[in-house]
Amino acid sequence: MRIIIHGVGAVGGVLAAALSRSGQQVVGIARGAQLEAIRADGLTVRTPQETFSARFDCVAHPSEITFEADDLILLTMKSQDTVAALEDLRAAGVRDQHIFCFQNGVANEPTALRRFPNVHGVTVMMPCSYLKPGQVSVRAQPRFGLFDIGRYPHGADDADRSLAAALDAAGFAGFPMEDVMQSKYGKLLMNLGNIIEASVGPGVDTAPLRQRVRSEAETVLQAAGISWVDVGAADPRRDAILKVAEVPGEARPGGSTVQSLRRGTGHVETDYLNGEIAYLGRRHDVEAPLNARLTQLGADLVRQGHSPGDLSVEDLTALLDGT
Ligand SMILES: NC(=O)C1=CN([C@@H]2O[C@H](COP(=O)(O)OP(=O)(O)OC[C@H]3O[C@@H](n4cnc5c(N)ncnc54)[C@H](OP(=O)(O)O)[C@@H]3O)[C@@H](O)[C@H]2O)C=CC1
Ligand SMILES: CC(C)(CO)C(=O)C(=O)O
């Protein structure tokens, strides 16, 4: 069983390096300076407890891989890059292999299921960062990450159990579950704050705004008949498995949307986070103005070339209130 990691950035990088260190056969798919650095020196992972490097095979494109029936394919790119990645996998001969969406949002699984029969959702609880080519960090201990894993739309099979076992052996915690999308909707509610954090900058107290945005989303999910489980601070597994902790010498990096804005990648994932709520609200005739405005804000911040923290909390509140 090989583990193919498509998109070796923050999440994909921590997974690739730790799985490879634990003895799994890993093949990464990366691009640009990241690919060059990994090929030259491997990938270095900084954690609260240690810094380690790992070497694994890394290619520029799925067409360089001869896929085997028992390969497990992990999608670890942002949601806006998923369609292109799936098309590349299909052109490279992928058919029945198990594909795991290690991504935020809930749109990747149905997108993959249109093309492939064996699709799995994974809830990713792993605060990590892409630092520079060849270097990532993860701010969690004692485990690097906690993952709920299951087939889409439901069920859990041997592929889920094999991957969970491999993750456990590599320093993560994997939990096969029958209804993984409930967990992913719970994570989606947490990620509605990503664009808020990116607007005002990491470390700024935005709890009241986040609560308003979340409760609007909960109303939308209820109207849509979608249930979720809380995977946030109230999740009892976190105490023993996943505490957020600082990496020595690393400034507070912020979540994945902050990182996209800071790196000027030219896109953010907001259409698939707050935009999911706007979409569901429109489909089910429920007003969701806060999430709709935040979705538009994500696009505006990118187009106007903003950096994290360019807005004050007052600016953002006025924008959300339409004043
Ligand atoms: N970072 C975090 O703390 C967490 C992130 N997540 C989720 O995990 C997912 C991944 O996020 P994250 O790791 O932060 O994102 P990153 O941007 O750090 O990593 C994604 C990587 O995928 C690469 N990529 C995209 N498309 C392709 C392609 N077709 N071929 C090769 N490489 C490709 C990107 O390259 P390039 O840079 O050139 O675009 C980038 O290196 C997202 O859904 C995010 O929301 C979930 C929990 C925590
Ligand atoms: C919850 C959080 C902010 C960190 O794990 C995340 O999912 C992200 O950065 O997208």
Strand order in the largest sheet: 5-2-1-6-7-8-12-13
Reported for the largest beta sheet, the result is:
8 strands, mixed
SS-based class:
alpha/beta
- The total count of helices amounts to 13
Note the gap between the termini.
56 Å
CATH architecture: 3-Layer(aba) Sandwich
* CATH class designation: Alpha Beta
> Which percent band covers the strand fraction?
15-25%
Helix content: 40-55%
Q: Looking at the chains present, what oligomeric state does this protein adopt?
A: single chain
Mean pLDDT: 97
Order of helices and strands: EHEHEEEEHEHEEEEEHEHHHHEHHHH
Give the overall shape, derived from the CA principal axes: globular
Bound molecules: NADPH dihydro-nicotinamide-adenine-dinucleotide phosphate, ketopantoate
Structure in a nutshell:
It holds the Pfam family ApbA. This protein is of the alpha/beta class.
Explain this structure to me?
By secondary structure, the protein is of the alpha/beta class. The chain has a single domain, classed as 3-Layer(aba) Sandwich (Rossmann fold). It contains 13 helices and 14 strands. Helix 4 (108-113) links the parallel strand 7 and strand 8 (119-125). Helix 8 (207-223) runs parallel beside helix 11. The longest helix has 17 residues, at 207-223. The termini are far apart. The relative contact order is 0.13. The model has no long low-confidence stretch (mean pLDDT 97). The site of NADPH dihydro-nicotinamide-adenine-dinucleotide phosphate has 31 residues, from helix 1, helix 2, helix 3, strand 9 and helix 10. One of its GO terms (molecular function) is 2-dehydropantoate 2-reductase activity.
